[in-house]
Every structure is written in C-alpha cells, then in structure tokens.
Write a structure and sequence with these properties.
- The protein is mainly α and 81 residues long.
- 63% of the residues lie in helices and 5% in strands.
- The protein has four helices and two strands; from the N terminus they run αβααβα.
- It has helices at 9-31, 38-45, 49-58, 71-80; strands spanning 35-36, 69-70.
- It has a two-stranded antiparallel ribbon with strand order 1-2.
- Helix 2 (38-45) packs across helix 3.
- The longest helix is centred in the first third of the chain and has 23 residues, at 9-31.
Length: 81
C-alpha cells in the first residue's frame, strides 16, 4: 500500500470526484446484471430444461443459490463447450 500526503484542497476534490465516478461506473455495470431462469437459458441454448438443470447441478454452468444464471455464465459455458 502506498502512502501519500495531499496538501491541496483542489487535489483532494479531484481525487474524490475520480473515485466517485469510478464507483458509479462499477455500480452501473453490476446494476445491469441480467439473470436468467433455467427455462430461459434452455430456450436460449436450444436445450431441454432438464439438461440445463443437470449442467447447473454439476457446476458446468454457474448459477446463483436460487438457480439464476448470468449472461457471463452462459458465455463461459459456450466458450468451454
């Protein structure tokens, strides 16, 4: 970890604004996270519900605790297929 001593109020304001805008960008990325049900993923991938359910249960497709699947998990599955 680096230690810096900042003595200018203008520099402090600039740092706060930069950190604030980076946090907002990160929050907005995560806010737009799309979650899909097993049925939605099955339709999207042209598979049956039971096939996708087995892939989730085996960990081949990552999911949340309530079996929701992110766009990223679908992309990862397709890349590794």
């Amino acid at each position: 970890m680096k230690l810096a001593i900042i003595q200018s109020e203008d520099l402090i304001k600039e740092i706060k604004e930069t950190i604030g805008s980076e946090l907002k960008a990160h929050f907005n990325e995560n806010k737009e996270l799309r979650l899909y049900t097993i049925n939605q993923v099955a339709k999207k991938l042209g598979m049956s519900h039971s096939t996708v359910k087995k892939l989730v249960k085996s960990g081949t497709i990552a999911s949340t605790r309530n079996d929701r699947i992110t766009e990223e998990a679908i992309d990862d599955f397709l890349k590794n297929k």
